[in-house]
Amino acid sequence: ISSLWTIFCLLFLWAGCPLAFGAVDFDGTDDYVDGGDINAMDGLTAVTATAWVKATAASTNEIHIMDKSSCDGATGNFEVFMGYFAAHKASFSIYYSGTADTSGTSTTSIDDGAWYHLAGVYDGSSIIIYVNGVQENSKVNAGQTLSSTGLNFGIGGYCNNNPYHWNGLIDDVRVYNRALSASEIEVIAKGRLKYDSLTTPGNGLVGYWPLDDSPDGTSGDGDTFKDRSGNGNNGTGVDG
Q1: Where are the alpha helices (H) located in 38-181, listed in sequence order?
Q2: Each residue of 45-93: pLDDT tens digit?
Q3: What is the distance between the alpha carbons of residues 55 and 70, in angstroms, rounded to a whole number?
Q4: Beta-carbon count within 10 A of 77 CB
Q5: Closest Cα to residue 240, out of 23, 60, 21, 25?
Q6: CB 155 within 8 A of CB 239
Q7: CB 151 within 8 Å of CB 160
Q8: I need a labelling partner for 36 at 20 to 30 A (CA). Which of 61, 205, 226, 236 fits?
């Protein structure tokens, strides 16, 4: 990318501009990043999960971006995923007490080849989905505690041996043990920068994966994707 193009992107924050420092390219078939069983994601009463995504191809199937779930519809922790069937929409689900509930789908289709920032929030009262810093749907569901399991956290859709693979790029994945406010989510989405004020210590980060580690941009076998939250929850790339 030329320096002039980069300056244009930073000045105007155009949706077609890529993020700085790269992303991971998932092939939609068998690529994923395995984050292991992150105990700090268990038993939360509030949570926020965010990521930048860019689809290579639209899909009419269920597709996941990140998850810590059994993917059997009942007993996992949480997941962010791109809708069901022909919806092409984003939604955020939480799993608790042997059941699950969702924010409902976004109004924006997120698989048209543009970059989108997604944020899923459970604030103890409602389950909320944001696209590009704007709340697009929510559902009231108060007083829940997320399930506690031994399941692994994953990026890219390989969910507990159930394939819901993302086809395209994923970047700047974050999980917080609290509900980010609408203004905080806007900081991430509109700033379009990694390592912003919400990646500094004390912000409730459970894990932060900038996904800049693989030199060729793929989720290569054995590549380490470092957790920059300081919690040591590094992921391992699996490339087929």
Answers
A1: none
A2: 999 999 999 999 888 888 899 999 888 766 677 777 766 555 789 999 9
A3: 24
A4: 24
A5: 25
A6: no
A7: yes
A8: 61
